[in-house]
Amino acid sequence: MAKKLSDFAVELTGFFILFLVLFTVFHGGYSGRQLNQLLTSIHFPTQLEDLSTIFLSMFIEGIPFILLSVILSSFIHIFINETSLFAKIPKTPLFGIPLASLFGLIFPICECGTVPVAKGFMDKGLPFPMGLAFLVAAPVINPITIVSTYVAFGNNYHVVIDRVFLAFVIAITLGFISYYLFPKPKLKKQNGFIMSDCGCHCDHGHHHEHQHHHHDKASMYSRISDALQHALLEFIDMGKYFIIGSLIAAAFQTFIGFSTMKEFASHHYLSILAMMLLAFGLSLCSSSDAFVAASFRNAFGFAPILAFLVFGPMMNLKNALMMYGYFRTSMVYFLFLGSSILVFFATLLWF
Amino acid sequence: MFHLISRTLICFGLSLMFINLLVTKKIQLFINPRLAPLVALSAFILITLGLVQVWNKRIENSSPLRLSTYFILLLPVLFFVVFPAKPLDAYMASKKGTILTSHSGNSQAAKTPTSSNSTNQATTSNTATTFDDIFEKKADELKKLNVITFNEDNFVDRINLLNLYPDRLNGKKVQFYGFVYRDKDYPADYMMISRFTVVCCTADANIDGILVQTPKAHQFAENTWLSVDGVLESQKIQDEDVLVIRPTSLKRITPPKSPYVYANLSTGN
Q1: In chain A, N or C terminus with fewer CB closer than 10 Å?
Q2: What is the ipTM of this complex?
Q3: How confident is the model at residue A143 (pLDDT cuts 50, 70, 90)?
Q4: Which residues of A touch B183 (CB under 8 A)?
Q5: Alpha-carbon distance B23 to B17, whole Å?
Q6: Residue-wise pLDDT tens digits, A194-227
Q7: Burial (Cβ within 10 Å: 0-12, 13-18, ≥19) of residue A173
């Protein structure tokens, strides 16, 4: 009885909120307007307003991709069993790692979406070094990024070739190093949300596990709602890191920005480090960062710009935080150190 | 119960924000309107997820997510409500930094990269010449115009041509508008009439514009929107050949509803 009542209350609240949503949208909301007037009368420092604009723009731009990728990974999680997804793919490192770094060509997701998808793949039996190679390479080696880089640099394909080639080499290198460094990796965090096998409901792990074995019997409806429920929990958990990352990146843009980095333009290798730091801090989407990079062309040489183009999608504030949410801290350190050292020394060759 | 309500609130709160941005068209202050359908899709997905929360009877109420997590998810809504949506301004322009001369000119691409690989260099110069041809043709077309005008669609293209061919377009009449921005490196009687160009979101906005030389420059505060009529003059500033407008008239205008110029991939902007 009590359960029924609480169910009813929940449903009522839902309808109430939905009604409020629709009401506010279509009527603008009286109190909303008054609140708005009050708020516009307060003058915030312009820096804060700029920070808010940039933060929200990053958030709004990233959210569709994060939502789609958590839904994709949740459906993979609920509907595809471990053996079928990667059954036909060679898993020997020699073939597997280069192959995994090219997955991005089939799953065109930009860097906001790779973390949940890579994690979903690894849960479904993609070996760790391959998953890592995918994680590092996919933001650069995908059709959207390739086309936008080509266009941003005035239809000049040698920038594209250098960018893709370098990302590919670094992804493979990191993949092989991790193959020898972490022979039996424990992927997930020991504590927290992501721990249990189904990626959610830690304290209900056993219960859920049980359900999974009976998937065949569960109705389509309940499986879909399971997947959506899973997607939401994953979205909230991922969203947390994404939001904090975007907020820090927006602060970096408003308070430090490119103008500070310009000071280092004339230094030899310092300019590479400056551009890597800039890429890390700005946390731009890999589908549009080429346009920003193109605007630095007159201030910086090609090597630092290449470093910006290759390092940014692999490792930046926003996705480092997302990785931190999903993977063990040591793996995030490994990825951070590995990619920054490799990008730095590799781009020195372009001087 | 608390978890359920918070999750529902997040879903509906975020989708409400998205729908509000779409309905009021303020979305264009944050992202390229081309991406608006994706935002609408997100709102739809979030509403669906919210409804699943409410209707799914089997959902266990407890969850390991903490209170702070829910709070963080509502941060964007908080920012959206507290800070009035407004376009980027001259302060951000100073942080983005302007670089005199070409921003995305094609022949520049060939000038900057130095490659250790000889085949690479060969391809570079090949593409550079072909695209130089195209751009020279475009510059000649521009030269035939009585007055060079700018609108949202041709902005990026024409600014590039101005940056690429200061010598050819010297002396042309021009009509331009944008907001006032002053870099600390500009000489005293110069200001830049500028626009932000946005590819995906304002985080990737670049500042672009034309310098104006007038003794009245100091009369205009930064962020003032101006419309300029004048003549282009090629000058040497910071060792670069730059086209500068010598204005015949300067008018204050109201800021446009759509303050950014959106660069679209398909047109090669």
Answers
A1: N
A2: 0.84
A3: confident
A4: none
A5: 10
A6: 433 333 333 333 334 444 444 455 677 778 888 8
A7: middle
Tokens of B144: 């035939």
CB contact under 8 A, B85 and A156: no
The verdict on pTM exceeding 0.90 is no
Angle, to 10 degrees, between the axis of helix A268-282 and the axis of helix A329-348?
140
Our CA-based measurement puts residue A14 at a distance from the nearest CA of chain B, in whole angstroms, of 6
Number of residues assigned to chain B:
269
Token pair in block for residue A159: 């920038």
DSSP code per residue over A115-159: HHHHHHHHHTT--HHHHHHHHHHTTTSSHHHHHHHHHHTTS-HHH
- Residues with Cβ < 8 Å from B245, sequence gap 6 or more? B174, B176, B193, B210, B211, B212, B213, B228, B230, B231, B232, B233
Query: Which of A35, A288, A306 to substitute to test the interface with B, most B CBs within 10 Å?
Result: A288
Reference B96, options A311, A292, A57, A149; nearest CA is A292
- Residue in A10, A36, A243 closest to B73 by CB: A243
CA trace torsion A306, A312, A313, A314 (10° rounding):
100
Token couple for B87: 């376009």
Phi-psi region of B214 (alpha: psi -120 to 50; beta: other; left: phi over 0): beta
Burial of residue B104 (number of CB atoms within 10 Å: 0-12, 13-18, 19+): buried
Cβ pair A195, A230 in contact under 8 A: no
What six digits make up the tokens of B61?
């109420």
CA distance B199 to chain A (A): 6
Query: Does residue A280 contact residue A315 with C-beta atoms inside 8 Å?
Result: yes
Whether residue A299 contacts residue A258, with contact meaning beta carbons closer than 8 Å, is answered with no
- Contact between chains at B53 and A59 (C-beta distance less than 8 A): no
Q: Which residues make beta-bridge pairs with B252?
A: B226
Amino acid at A22: L
Q: Considering only residues 109 to 168 of chain B, which have any Cβ-Cβ distance to chain A shorter than 8 Å?
A: 109-110, 112-116, 120, 123-124, 127-128, 131
